[in-house]
Amino acid sequence: MLHKYCVTVLVLSNITDFHILLGNWMKFVNLNFMAMLSATEIEQLDRDGYVGLGPLLSPSEVAEVNQRIDELILQEGAQAGSELFDSKYIRHPKENGADRLADLVNKGAIFDRFYTHPKVLSAIQAVLGEAYKLSSLNYRASKPGQGLQKLHVDYGNTVPIGGYKVCNTIWLLDDFVENNGATRIVPGTHKSSALPEDVMPDPLEAHPKEIKILAPAGSVFVFNSHVWHGGTINHTQNQRRSIHSYFCATDQPQQLDQRRYITEATKKRIGQDAQRILDVL
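Above: the chain sequence. Below: its structure as tokens.
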């Protein structure tokens, strides 16, 4: 790559063109540097099956997303999340204990970052390799007094270590604290040869080695979806909100058939790189 730019500089006609090219080159370098996971992050993702990427949304961006979510919940009413009802590839399209929205890809530019952010994609690639696509982009809000899920994986069976097929990201739209239904994970279980139901009398119960994802709103976590995980009870009086951008290997079916749902307006807005992630080209 550097040789290409050096050759180009040799044929530039003036110093202004040189500075323009240099600026573009530095933007390229900075973008790719920021997109890279650190060695520590890669090690944790491989060892534990999850990693926190820190705050990727500012407080004002979180507020804007939540405002748009509120608008959609009001508009869609009882049909909120209905796109998932006819999917054969989602465990719980409708939960009594949680509000859901689906197909956020087609519900505004504000959601584009949730499946195109460079650092998130770097983490997805660390789990799935280069051959991946977005499976679904959904919203889930754990209701007060509810939200408990069984420990589960997002795949039908165990897989060989390194042969992972699914990977999820959770974007925190509220602070995740000990008592508001934070997601629980059993670190390292993505490498297990058993599923939760194979070894636990009741996967609804707490696992002795489980941890909870606790972090402020705007934070993002990526977890290998073969790791045992699930929602916990929200003991507060407020919803606990999040967005999940869920990815799968290219040889797997999507939870939501993006080719079926993609609109022309969305295709024009997002460009070809995002269309490749959606597998709609």
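The chain has nine helices and nine strands.
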